[in-house]
Design brief:
The protein is mainly β and about 80 residues long. It contains no helices and five strands. The structure holds iron/sulfur cluster (SF4) (2 copies).
Length: about 80
Amino acid sequence: MNPSKQSNVLIMVNRDRCGVCGCCVPVCPPGAITLHDACLEVDHETCTECMKCLPVCPTHALYEIPAKAIGTSGGRVR
Ligand code: SF4
Ligand code: SF4
């Protein structure tokens, strides 16, 4: 956790596309991606914006948006 973290991009999950296969969880170096009750969650405070998760998703459910697009500089968005 780094409360002063300033995000440039946020990794988002398209829940209509996500099959909750879990493939993206182990490729995330800081462990920012977790599964809770069959629901994928990305902790934006932990995410280092390395983008390693994006290409592993078989359904292209993960995508990035500019952090300023939703007016936050970190934190958890579900
Ligand atoms: S961009 Fe990197 S750190 Fe962020 S959720 Fe994806 S794999 Fe994890
Ligand atoms: S790899 Fe894609 S489909 Fe699988 S859990 Fe992650 S976001 Fe969902």
